[in-house]
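[DERIVE STRUCTURE TOKENS]
===
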Amino acid sequence: QVTLVESGGGLVQAGDSLRLSCAASGSAFSINLMGWYRQVPGKQRDLVATITSGGSTNYADSVKGRFTISRDNAKDTVYLQMNSLKPEDTAVYSCYARTYYNNYWGQGTQVTVSS
């Protein structure tokens, strides 16, 4: 079992930066991939970025060049550095972790970008 706890969301203005954190606990040693997804009301949850245990990353086209995902394996924590935020980045951001047997989700954190 893995538990994910997110932090770092909030209200910012367009052009500002935010950093989200997601700390994994429990059987964190079994995680082979972590990432962030986001969702706005009435729409599906979309991939933002993922990172493997080996450090390989993948980004949605909409955030490439602005967002950076990183991982501290010693702390079982994944980060999402978000720069040059836009109003369309407003969403609930959820942390995701995958093991060989299960998928896990955090509770979500709201990011609101005002114009």
Remarks:
- The mean pLDDT is 95.
- The radius of gyration is 13 Å.
- The chain has no helices and eleven strands.
- The CA atoms of residues 62 and 93 lie 15 Å apart.
